Amino acid sequence: MHLSKIGEAGAAESGDILVTVTPAQETGIQVELTGKPVILKQFGRQIKELIAETAAKSGVQHALISAKDGGALDCTIKARVRAAIQRAV
Q: 59 in the Ramachandran plot: left (φ > 0), alpha (ψ -120 to 50) or beta?
């Protein structure tokens, strides 16, 4: 899937996640994650893997994905990543 512009979905509020997908020239999917340190320490690696996996399953090969987590559930993270990708296509 070819990304042609920046796509964004979600909100930077408690219980949600703000996801921004940007087309990248480099090969692969890069994930930048910010949020509350206590959440990132415990779940950061899992959240990054979930974001990258969801993007790959959506057919994305080259992207920079920035996410600001506010304690979102896995189903919310997947939905926000998919929506941001669709908006970037």
A: left
